[in-house]
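Hi V.,

Quick status before I head out on leave. The structure for the redesign project is tokenized and pasted below; the design run finished overnight.
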């Protein structure tokens, strides 16, 4: 009986000791950079969310323990298109930028900082290609990448320029696909933070005099690993209000709204209305109608900041008009009817570029080509009457849309960083 009691006490004591071995936590995030740049851009990919998560973990403490930062490591790799020397320099500079960013939450001694450079991340590229069935000549590409990875590790003799061999494979089709879809994923640094958990079950840890506001967190301990869940930041919202300055110059007031739908898609709608007349001189300048378009944004600028850069789209228009300057006049649709009676219409494809000019302002240049159809009437003013001359059908293929729009950016996070904002 005594032996059994002693054994039970020993097991319980050992369990208490083992429970106190959960003393270390590690957090990590991936921070992306623009090609060949060292600037930290929170709006790029998921950088803002990752930085907020690290910031929260640096600021938080817990009731029964304190987490002491023990080590920070920045592990930098590179996509294959840059030289090893240049990429090493970029890796070191980017690490310094990340260390400077974290220093705003407290002093970081140099003894805590470490920086590791992986070189050209061939293994990372192989993993991306393995998970992407759309890579052209995928099996040949994987075979070549694995061969190059072995050469880079020194396990087999090298066979010359690695990058050139990829570029020459199948006329460069696999290379350019990976350059567009996978290389940006490799232009990143992985930020690791190690925390040491110090237990003090007898007396509370003295708190610093400086008051720190701590957001609520949930901590779950599973298999000696501590997962820290922090509240997600609010999602950004992008829209704009615009006016076509070409119509404004022609004394046709107009206004438009554009909403970003996500994944590079947006929808824009606008309306114009100008109804000027001078009966005594037989001058009429009348037009009203609307336009709606669906756009796909593309290019590096559009990926970094929605509603900016290149866009392609399809559009439809309905409108009516009555133009007469003292001589022959032209009226779209039936005289005296509603818009639907008078309606002319146009549809086509458009291309444009939205250029930042200020923190909340862009200028959007857009041209559209398509079909313009509908009925219109020709008439002449005779004495106090307008005498009908003929009715015709419009069938026009060519430019049907032109915009030079002043765009006001609205929404959370919808501003241009390098135009009057923080750099």
């Amino acid at each position: 009986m005594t032996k059994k009691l002693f054994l039970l006490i020993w097991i319980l004591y050992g369990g208490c000791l083992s429970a106190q071995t959960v003393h270390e936590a590690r957090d990590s995030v991936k921070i992306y950079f623009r090609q060949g740049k060292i600037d930290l851009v929170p709006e790029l990919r998921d950088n803002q969310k990752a930085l907020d998560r690290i910031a929260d973990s640096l600021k938080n403490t817990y009731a029964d323990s304190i987490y002491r930062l023990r080590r920070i490591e920045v592990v930098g790799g590179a996509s294959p298109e840059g030289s090893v020397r240049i990429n090493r320099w970029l890796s070191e500079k980017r690490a310094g930028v990340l260390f400077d960013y974290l220093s705003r939450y407290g002093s970081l001694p140099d003894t805590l900082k470490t920086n590791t450079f992986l070189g050209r991340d061939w293994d990372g590229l192989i993993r991306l290609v393995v998970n992407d069935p759309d890579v052209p000549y995928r099996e040949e590409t994987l075979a070549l990448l694995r061969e190059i990875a072995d050469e880079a590790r020194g396990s087999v003799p090298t066979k010359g320029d690695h990058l050139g061999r990829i570029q020459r494979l199948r006329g460069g089709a696999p290379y350019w696909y990976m350059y567009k879809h996978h290389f940006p994923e490799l232009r990143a640094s992985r930020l690791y933070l190690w925390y040491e958990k110090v237990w003090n079950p007898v007396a509370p840890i003295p708190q610093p005099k400086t008051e720190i506001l701590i957001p609520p967190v949930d901590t779950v301990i599973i298999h000696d690993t501590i997962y820290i869940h922090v509240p997600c930041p609010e999602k950004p919202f992008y829209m704009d209000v615009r006016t076509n300055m070409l119509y404004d110059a022609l004394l046709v007031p107009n206004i438009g709204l554009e909403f970003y739908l996500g994944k590079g898609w947006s929808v824009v709608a606008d309306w114009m209305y100008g109804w000027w007349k001078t009966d005594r001189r037989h001058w009429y300048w009348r037009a009203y109608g609307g336009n709606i378009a669906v756009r796909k944004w593309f290019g590096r600028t559009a990926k970094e900041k929605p509603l900016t850069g290149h866009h392609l789209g399809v559009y439809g228009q309905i409108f009516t008009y009555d133009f007469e300057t003292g001589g022959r006049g032209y009226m779209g649709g039936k005289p005296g009817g509603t818009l639907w009676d008078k309606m002319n219409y146009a549809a086509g494809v458009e291309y444009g570029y939205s250029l930042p000019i200020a923190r909340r302002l862009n200028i959007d240049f857009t041209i559209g080509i398509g079909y313009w159809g509908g009925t219109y009437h020709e008439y002449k003013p005779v004495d106090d009457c307008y005498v009908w001359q003929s009715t015709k059908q419009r069938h026009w293929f060519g430019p049907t849309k032109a915009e030079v729009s002043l765009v006001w950016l609205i929404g959370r996070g919808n501003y241009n960083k390098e135009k009057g904002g923080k750099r």
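Above is the designed sequence. Residues 9-22, 61-65, 209-215, 217-232 have pLDDT under 50 and may be disordered.

G. will cover questions while I'm gone.

Best,
W.
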